[in-house]
Amino acid sequence: MILVRAPLRISLFGGGSDFKNFYKKKKSAILSFSFNKYVYVIVKKSFSNNFVISYSKKETTKNIEKIKHPIIRETLKFFKIKEPLEIISISDIPGKGSGLGASSAFACALVKAIVEYKRIYLPKSSIAKIASIIEISKCNSKIGKQDHYASAIGGFNLLRFYSSEKVKIKKIKIKKIFFQNLFLVPTNIYRNASKILTKQQLRKNIKNRNLQIDKLVKMAIRVSKIFQKNSISSINQIGLFMHKGWIIKKKISESITNKKIDNLYNLGIKAGSIGGKLLGAGGGGFILFYVPKEKQNYFKKSFSNSFYIRPKLDTQGLLVKKLK
Question: What is the mean pLDDT of each run of 10 residues along the chain (324 residues)?
Fold first, then answer.
């Protein structure tokens, strides 16, 4: 039995530049990190002659083509799996529409579990590449590639995607104080990222979208250099940049935000945050707030009736355990 753990991710700047229609023409850069909330996938030989699939639903079938979960179906087809398997998936955070890259973390975990089951060695970057091909090309999800690399590799990274399809990953060292100042607050709105991103990429919207993303790419590169200074004063600047980035992101599309999200964001600012952003494609999910230490008690009191997460850096990326 193979157990694989894949971390979720938080994208700070440059999201959207990991789409092929962007990085084929323009410079791409994404600043992101994986954190200590996970998707878990178990793969084992099936006790019966059926594929047994357990996630938020349960499926049992002899025919791979009849599997309804697209990532599972296409992954099994990609690796030409014929022996019936049992596949189980669970997550620390409800994955659908969270804005934390859960579907891509699942894709990476499943690919890793299958190659381990088949006793094939592949580096983490190759796992990310295959997972992105399956989710984007085979499942036709209108998403980018950053989430697969963030989850598979782990850590805090500056990701660069090139027109040649080369991916460059630069590790960045970060002081713990940065993570000690972060709060993840749910909007309690969950949406289909692929549908939102499809709308954003309509021909009538693409010019403005690319213009705003280009600004976020430049911000990602600039902020990565600030992080390298690693002083407390420089790190506190990141919160201010997050706010500037959020203002830019909202200009990408009307679907990015709504009244409920804006009210929650404004509440966080009034409660002591110096900046934040809605994670993912927009329309729901989680808001990341940067709150200096001296403001955190007031922030916590303001959100005392709300659930929030204090994210910590995950440095391992994909982690595998083989159980007998």
Answer: 97 95 95 98 95 96 97 98 96 86 97 96 97 97 95 98 96 91 92 66 74 95 85 83 95 89 96 95 91 96 91 97 79
Q: Which of 134, 24, 29, 160 lies closest to 79, judged by CA?
A: 134
Is this structure's pTM higher than 0.85? yes
Strand partners, 26: none
Domains of the chain plus CATH, in order, are: 2-172+314-322 (3.30.230.10), 176-302 (3.30.70.890)
The answer to whether the beta carbons of residues 218 and 273 sit under 8 Å apart is: no
* C-alpha–C-alpha distance, residues 238 and 244, integer Å: 10
pLDDT value at residue 207: 85
The 10 Å Cβ neighbour count of residue 244 is 16
Residue 22 CA to residue 121 CA, distance in Å, equals: 32
Question: Distance from CA of residue 234 to its chain's centroid?
Answer: 25
Confidence (pLDDT) at 78: 98
- Residue 5 sits at the vertex; the CA angle it makes with 39 and 100, to the nearest 5 degrees, is 35
- Report the C-alpha gap between 117 and 262 in whole angstroms: 46
CB 298 within 8 A of CB 183: no
